[in-house]
Write a structure and sequence with these properties.
six-stranded mixed sheet; globular; alpha+beta
Length: 314
Amino acid sequence: QILRKKSVQFGSGYGHQFNCRFFSNNAARNVKLNEVDNPTTADTQATGNVPWRHTETHWALEERIISMNRAPSRLVSLLQTSRVDAMTDLAELMETNFWSKPSSASDELSPFGVPSWVVYNSASDGFTGGNPSAFPQTGAGSIDSDVQSRWKNWSGKYTTLSAADCIRKWREASTKTEFRPPVDGPFNNTRSQYGFYTNYTTLGQLEEILYSQNDNLGSDVASLDGMTRFRRTPVTWVPWFDNNSAKMLSEAGVTNPIYGLNWASLKVAFLSGEYLKTSKVAPHPLHHRTLTSFTDCTYQYFCQDRRSNFVLSQ
């Protein structure tokens, strides 16, 4: 979902810049016949920027271990399995990076994941998700939401996972973050690609609610498991949430969260030429019989429209 090459962007320089639309030039007005024209111009956009972050993985094999694994004693292809293991490690780290944010203002290693852009505010519901805390920049993308009030995501707090509480707020959040401008253009989100993400505790309760609403279940007591949808969009279980609840509470301040992410606005940019760049297999400089290969990527997550994303937390 994150690294599909057709959906990522590529950039250059020391970071990635992107445009966000906040303003209007107030050009529309009511007029009389033969009214004197008074054209105005205004810069209706602000530029966000994020610094690059760098991630790598590698594999290493001692040549004599390869010789020991040759036919007829060969069990598996060591080169192939070593590469698969290395790329699996990369995928797991990228998942952690995606759902995390820098731990402090001095953190120069961590990418700006979802909590950097979709901020939870326990104080009040609505478009109240402002600047991320303990962050290397003042505001997400160096745009201060205290200055640009429209640079905030939707945030909501629920107590119980019920139709009268969580689901009601979920409906409101989905309605108000999927606002569609009345005209086509580069900032129109009519092609929004929404996804809902939560942990198993929440998903399990949603499946129970779905079960209780269906009168034609037959003899299968779990016939609707794996079929939970909200507004015809599948609700996706994120195992990482279950394994990192303490990290999510400390970094993002969320418990049993429901994230509504718009993949049309939340993206990843790579430095041109640095998309999963793999080096040639070569001897290690300090171990002449050990072969190594590295895969590097220079990238950063960014969001062009925070108002089209939301987070709910218990």
